[in-house]
Amino acid sequence: MDHSRVAADVLKGVGGEENVKSVVHCMTRLRFAIRDDAKIDKAAVKAIPGVITTAEAGGQYQVVIGNEVPEVYAELGKISGLVAGTQATAVDPDEPKKNLFNRFISMIAALFTPLLWALAGTGLLKAFLSAAATFGWIATDTSTYLVLNALSDAFINFLPMALAITAARYFRASEWTSFAIAGALVYPTITPLVGAEGLTFFGVPFTMVSYVSSVIPIILIVWLQSYAEKFLYAKLHSSVRRFLTPMIVVLIAVPLVFVVVGPISALLSGWLGEGIGWIFANVPWLGGAIMGGLWQVFVIFGLHWGFVPLFTLEFQATGQILLIGPVFAAVLAQSAAVAGVWVRTRDKKLKSLAAPATLSGFLAGITEPAIYGINLPLKRPFIFGIIGGALGGAIIAIGGVFSTAFVVPSGLALPALFGNGNMLFLGLGLIAAIVVSFLLTVILGFKDPVDEDAPAAAANNDLEIRSPLDGTAVALSEVADPVFAGGVLGKGAAVLPSSGAVYAPFDGVVAAAFPTGHAIGLRHADGAEVLIHIGVDTVKLGGQHFSMKVESGQAVKAGELLIEFDIDAIKAAGFDVTTPVIITNAELYPEITSQVTGPISHGEALYLAKSVEAIALAK
């Protein structure tokens, strides 16, 4: 492939640089945010040698290149000013505002996505190294161990420096100025000052906390940096602003972290640690539930450092650490939750990331790939991990389980707890943490992300129909109505719903909104017409227990609520609620492939509809 030619032709086809608001790339696609769609020569872009196909989704014009998309993206950067600062997508001011929690989750996902494979790979290596040391396969006082430990531990140790780059891209700040700020936070002469007394900066006293492996401080300061740079670039003369801006920003930002962010973090951590210490002394089960359930939340915000002095003081005074026992439940619960994602997800990319994240979490206690890459962005697995960790932590605390050493909680560090306290409660607590988190994730599930790096359906004219309901996917032949079961009205699948809501399975138009509310017809942009029929013979209810939320002719987006229905009332009336989801214009899509069965959530792929063109090409 001539990467430079492809980049130039694609840029011309989308209307030139002036017609592009921003461009990013994933594993296979260039993703353009376009100013005026009418200026795109779609036929010309599709015809470019090296372009597999194009697609339009999520407000983006997507050009599918394949495995060589990074090279084309790099060439695009050489011929335009579009690339710098756009690799991670900041919030588009034209998009509807999400709530604060969802915006935080989206930001974390965007910042960590470029780092996930390195985190997962080095975390897995750390797990294997820990196992080798635990079983005596390698001595920890050898130079070989030191080298292996450094190369497996360095990335997580210097995580703020990696986050500085992704945060700069997200907030559109100077990457290398952000890198300089992060470097100061983990500088070799700074880290030994952690906990030291009498520290001042030009007479202003401050407390040094550890920024190793931290997340929130660097994200916060880069966000502030982005505003400071805009201000300075507007005020400083062009002859000096390129070097004065980074100098001023670094000079202000780093002391700001040390003098303001650090002490506030230390103060909050201290209060939190003392509070939980008091709870452990008076209501141990509650302390265990808090530590087991919220430890990973504390880690995200850097508040866990407030417990380190408590661990140390408790050990110095008693020779044991009670507070650390429930943390094992927290770590293993999040690891179990990501294992549940590994088992349940149908997204190949997510599954391949969940595998090493599960192993590094269970073995070495390195949960960053699991939390930042999977559980937190998916939300529900993270919550399930909190629930399992809280339950397990409470049980462990009731048993008075303690550690005789300061260890990083993990599967391989469990011997530190053996023989210390009630071992029955330790076993029950760990089992509860793992089993509850895993089963909640597998059974209740989560909204599987669309695998946007899978071969595009447009490339072979297959149409992906996603489930409009939460429940259990079954074959169409299992529907009690012989007309549906025999495929007389069309081919497809069915869903036995677990909740009373129907969502749009794709972007399209409402072709028919039945007045009785028991069924709806949708038309896809490619021409496919899909009928969603809630239950068997439910038309006899005359609209009772159904509430239609859209009307005929209305455009809808994938995931938009279409119908609400009272599933319990319909069942009580003696009706089967199994819901066929069929393509009624079978002359255009005569074959159904890749049909799934078993637990499914709305938005997950239900089946592929193979078009006449795709069948002809295959022959």
Descriptive notes:
The structure is a single chain. The protein has 619 residues and is of the alpha+beta class. The strands form five sheets. Strands 15-11-12-13-17-9-8-19 form an eight-stranded antiparallel β-sheet, with no helix packed on it. The chain has a four-stranded antiparallel β-sheet with strand order 1-2-4-3. A hairpin with a 5-residue loop joins strand 11 (508-513) and strand 12. The longest helix is centred in the middle third of the chain and has 42 residues, at 241-282.
Provide the spatial order of strands within the biggest beta sheet. Answer: 15-11-12-13-17-9-8-19
Task: Summarize the amount of helix as a percent range.
Answer: 40-55%
Instruction: List the total number of helices.
Output: 21
Distance between the termini: 28 Å
What is the gyration radius calculated from CA atoms?
A: 28 Å
Structural class: alpha+beta
Number of DSSP-assigned strands: 20
Strand content: 5-15%
Q: Indicate the mean pLDDT.
A: 83
Q: Describe the main β-sheet briefly.
A: 8 strands, antiparallel
- pLDDT under 50 segments (min length 5)? 85-96, 451-460
What overall form do the CA principal axes indicate? globular
Q: List the quaternary state of the chains.
A: single chain
